[in-house]
Amino acid sequence: MTDTARALGSVGRGALRLTVYLLWTLLLIPVQALAVALRWPLRHRLPVFYHRQCARLLGLDLVVRGQQAAGAAAGPVLFVSNHSSYLDITVLGALIPGSFIAKTEVAGWPFFGLLAKLQRTVFVERKARSEVGKQRDDIGARLDAGDSLILFPEGTSSDGNRTLPFKTALFAVAARRIGDRPLTVQPVSVTPTRLDGIPMGIAFRPFYAWYGDMDLAPHLWQVFQLGGMTVEIDFHPPVTIDDFSSRKALAEHCQRVISEGVARAVSGRPAPTAAAAATTPAPVAP
Description:
Order of helices and strands: HHHEEHEHEHEEEEEHHEHH
Keywords: Acyltransferase, Lipid biosynthesis, Lipid metabolism, Membrane, Transferase, Transmembrane, Transmembrane helix
GO molecular function: 1-acylglycerol-3-phosphate O-acyltransferase activity
Number of strands: 10
Pfam families: Acyltransferase
Largest sheet: 8 strands, mixed
CATH class: Alpha Beta
Domain Phospholipid/glycerol acyltransferase: 77-193
Structural class: alpha/beta
Distance between the termini: 63 Å
Strand content: 15-25%
Pathway: Lipid metabolism
């Protein structure tokens, strides 16, 4: 069997992975449900453990660059990431102890809607401008409680080869102050780069990316059959709203650094040096 044939999947491997995934998930659902209901600290840690095992099961090799803003000293963090697939949930969930911000439709999805609720996802109606204030308050309340959140500001998933324009409305929460400090915002780039060691390129990236009018079930079944995938995650230097003249400027900065991270990973260019990565954002206009 050629490398390409192996990469494109095995029905036996898919069936085994699917079986183990379902058993693993069904085993942990009642544990997480109890932890959420009783507000145990485990409710924050268990999803990370769950997603890490799912990443291993799916053959996702996570290559992490940069330093994640995390820990008690940093306080809650708003992580801002590009979005090309439901697999981003597993990738970021395996690294970040936090909850996602997702569109309200996800709450009604069979099975996956339940998983989202158990990870304490914040559901928002992105098309209703009248709801922006309430959504900002809901997100703010979670941040005030010390919960880190993960936002996909493109509003939909892309083909993985580029980053779509960011919607700035939900960046309003970045103006929130946690105690006497501005909220920490950290841009994150997520890019699938290899499939069984083969550079993915435009041809193979749709095996990871789920976008447009793709049906979920066939795509998910294909993922279970695939060989190992390398996914590169870049944690870019964290910023705050105080570094910028406006919410729009903050959103533009996040989009720029995330887009550059995706473009670098897609092209295979080397990662920037530590000195370059630490470059500060443009100063606030007087």
